[in-house]
Amino acid sequence: KVQVVESGGGSVQAGGSLRLSCTASGSTFDDADMRWYRQIPGKECEMVSTLLSDGRTSYADSVKGRFTISRDNAKNTVFLQMNGLKTEDTAMYYCAAGYGGQSLWYLLRHPSEFAYWGQGTQVTVSS
User: Fold this and answer.
1) Per-residue pLDDT at 105
2) Which residue has the higher pLDDT, 101 or 13?
């Protein structure tokens, strides 16, 4: 059974940085496509960033140039480095894993491919 666990959330002032970590266990991490989502209460879940097993990445326009996704396959971990944080980045951040091996084009249009989710980690950015 695949288990996904996020960590690294917290409170920070605007302009600050945080690094989120996500560990996925229970299957071959090298084959995992990973994605970060975030959700503000009362709003739809937003796709933040995607990192495929082959290294291709995608970012939401709202975080481009500020967030960087990366992975360490030896540690079964994906990271989300968040710099230049803004108050509007405040949300619960979720990590999700998928093992379907689809293209980035397909995965951007079929979020259900990311079937394994963590419990989330809260990020709060204050002004």
Assistant:
1) 86
2) 13
